[in-house]
């Protein structure tokens, strides 16, 4: 039976969401992401795909998140969430792109039938899908397109309204584990707040509270959600000052604020008057990234990015595992090539934890982190989490403690497994993790920052004719193509003390990214622009040659 005979209303519904003729879509590192006015057909079709994925998995609930994270307000995007709250399986990303690009309804139906055949999908199986969106003005119309797609193939679906991306991931996992030994929690925002708040209370119980934390919410969904959380956790336990919380003014989302802005520009967000020794953090537009920062007494800005968070978390958890007497449990970390060389050095040589390096993109880090008993993964941009394997969870519940100190460590580890979002990086959950550790240590941000000093680093974007000719190997650290390019990069790097540079095509923008670090700011910038120049000259650079020093 073809999909059209099974669901006669699908054709008519698809006609209401025609594909624009001259646009090519790609389900990239973070789903589909582009100008919102080009997304109607993509989102309708993603609804159909989500229903098929659910049928394929015996009616397990699939999640759909409508967001474009840290992109400007006029963009939007969509990504699918698999049953345990993880990113959509990679083979299905290709289906998503094929569906989105089918030029006509007939071809769309043909692609759907091919997906059904290739996966032996039984259309009589139920389909369950939940979805949510961030605060973008284009959200409601796109949600309507999604619902249209889901209804057209008779999926059961539920609108969870406005949520952060990690909250939706949480709810998906809760729904699919309810009533099983892996039950993850109450499938609602209220359940999420309660789970995190209870765990946080256990972890900071009896400790002196830190000074208030200013949280820049990028004028996005993090603002209302962290406020809701603050109500549940209570001011006595956690003092937050919420800033950049304007989700109403058009164009304010991510504009000169938010985690990405702060990380890229290495200064505080607009709308926040930084004071020496104040404590500051920024979320991104869908609240799955977090960075901290402060200003020292000389009013110099210092960033504590994902690498610093990874170092802090790995140190704390490693000590806790030792105190809990969990011999044989390995704590490992996962980074990408963007991790600052000093952080890798700190993890490897000071903390002495294993460090893996993967390609950029959350799903790569997540899967690598699953290989450790406790896997700490963070991208330098502030996206990350800590995964606890079933082996650790078992060890935590089986271990009989011999001393009160050991019992306390085990209780604290257990609370951490509840507080840290196990599905995906989560700015609210990560913020609690950092606050717990700083509370335990009674550290200022500057004390945390002492762990190591970042090497100066620099990112340069190069516009080229065709970025697809750039292919990386060795976890993005080297280029395999264009031929000969890597040798040129190596030649440039060799001239600099502590120099490191790599080039990769962006997965979210039509550019090639050049990263460089070196012993001094000047050398680092020089290396970055030398390599950017090599790319520009030898691989079809367009527009102005990247130049600052050369
Ligand atoms: C996306 C990825 C992020 C990655 C970034 C790289 C997810 C959920 N997000 O935002 O992990 O760091 O892309 O962007 O996977 P780029 O390819 O443009 O450099
Ligand atoms: Mg994000």
Automatic annotation (TrEMBL):
Reaction(s) catalysed by this chain's protein: N-acetyl-alpha-D-glucosamine 1-phosphate = N-acetyl-D-glucosamine 6-phosphate
Record: residues binding substrate: 379-381, 504-508, 513
Catalytic residues as annotated in Swiss-Prot or TrEMBL: 69
Gene3D superfamilies, per database record: Alpha-D-Glucose-1,6-Bisphosphate, subunit A, domain 3 (3.40.120.10), Alpha-D-phosphohexomutase, C-terminal domain (3.30.310.50)
One Pfam family this sequence matches: PGM_PMM_I
Family annotation (InterPro entries): A-D-PHexomutase_a/b/a-I, A-D-PHexomutase_a/b/a-I/II/III, A-D-PHexomutase_C, A-D-PHexomutase_C_sf, A-D-PHexomutase_CS, AMG1_II, AMG1_III, PAGM
Domain Alpha-D-phosphohexomutase C-terminal intervals: 459-532
Annotated Mg(2+) binding sites: 69, 284, 286, 288
Co-factor binding details: Binds 1 Mg(2+) ion per subunit.
Domain Alpha-D-phosphohexomutase alpha/beta/alpha: 61-91, 117-179
Keyword Chaperone: no
Keywords: Carbohydrate metabolism, Cell wall biogenesis/degradation, Isomerase, Magnesium, Metal-binding, Phosphoprotein
Function: Catalyzes the conversion of GlcNAc-6-P into GlcNAc-1-P during the synthesis of uridine diphosphate/UDP-GlcNAc, which is a biosynthetic precursor of chitin and also supplies the amino sugars for N-linked oligosaccharides of glycoproteins.
The protein's name: Phosphoacetylglucosamine mutase
Originating species: Thamnocephalis sphaerospora
């Amino acid at each position: 039976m073809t999909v059209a005979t099974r669901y006669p209303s699908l054709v008519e519904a698809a006609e209401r969401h025609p594909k624009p003729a001259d646009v090519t879509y790609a389900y990239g590192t973070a789903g589909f992401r582009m100008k919102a006015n080009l997304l109607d057909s993509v989102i309708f079709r993603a609804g159909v795909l989500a229903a098929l994925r659910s049928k394929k998995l015996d009616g397990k609930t699939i999640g759909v998140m409508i967001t474009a994270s840290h992109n400007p307000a006029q963009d939007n995007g969509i990504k699918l969430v698999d049953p345990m709250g993880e990113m959509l399986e990679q083979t299905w990303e290709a289906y998503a792109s094929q569906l989105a690009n089918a030029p006509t309804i007939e071809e769309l139906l043909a692609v759907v039938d091919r997906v059904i055949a290739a996966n032996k999908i039984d259309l009589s199986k139920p389909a369950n899908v939940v979805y949510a969106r961030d605060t973008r003005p284009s959200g409601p119309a796109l949600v309507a397109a999604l619902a249209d797609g889901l209804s057209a193939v008779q999926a059961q679906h539920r609108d969870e309204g406005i949520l952060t991306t990690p909250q939706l991931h949480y709810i998906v996992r809760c729904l699919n584990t309810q009533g099983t030994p892996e039950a993850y929690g109450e499938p609602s925002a209220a359940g999420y707040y309660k789970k995190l708040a209870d765990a946080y209370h256990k972890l900071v119980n009896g400790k002196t509270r830190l000074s208030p934390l200013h949280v820049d919410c990028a004028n996005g969904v993090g603002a209302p959600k962290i406020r809701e959380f603050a109500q549940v956790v209570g001011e006595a336990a956690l003092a937050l000052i919420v800033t950049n919380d304007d989700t109403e003014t058009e164009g304010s989302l991510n504009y000169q604020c938010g985690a990405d802005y702060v990380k890229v520009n290495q200064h505080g967000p607009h709308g926040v008057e930084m004071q020496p020794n104040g404590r500051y953090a920024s979320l991104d537009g869908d609240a799955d990234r977090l960075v901290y920062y402060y200003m020292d007494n000389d009013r110099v800005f210092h960033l504590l990015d994902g690498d610093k968070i990874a170092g802090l978390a790995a140190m704390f958890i490693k000590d806790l595992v030792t105190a809990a007497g969990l011999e044989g449990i390995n704590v490992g970390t996962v980074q990408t090539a963007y991790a600052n060389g000093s952080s890798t050095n700190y993890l490897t040589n000071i903390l002495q934890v294993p460090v893996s390096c993967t390609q950029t993109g959350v799903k790569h880090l997540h899967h690598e982190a699953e290989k450790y008993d406790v896997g700490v993964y963070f991208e330098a941009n502030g996206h990350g989490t800590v995964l606890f394997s079933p082996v650790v969870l078992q060890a935590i519940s089986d271990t009989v403690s011999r001393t009160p100190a050991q019992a306390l460590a085990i209780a604290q580890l257990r609370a951490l497994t509840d507080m840290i979002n196990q599905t995906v990086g989560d700015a609210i959950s990560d913020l609690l993790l950092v606050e717990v550790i700083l509370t335990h240590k009674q550290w200022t941000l500057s004390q945390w920052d002492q762990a190591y000093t970042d090497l100066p680093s620099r990112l340069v974007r190069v516009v080229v004719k065709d970025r697809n000719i750039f292919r990386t190997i060795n976890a993005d650290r080297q280029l395999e193509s264009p031929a000969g390019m890597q040798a040129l990069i190596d030649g440039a790097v060799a001239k600099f003390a502590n120099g490191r540079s790599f080039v990769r095509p962006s997965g979210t923008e039509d550019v090639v990214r050049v990263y460089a670090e070196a012993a001094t700011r000047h050398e680092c910038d020089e290396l970055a622009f030398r390599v950017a120049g090599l790319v520009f000259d030898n691989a079809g650079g367009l527009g102005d040659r990247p130049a600052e020093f050369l």
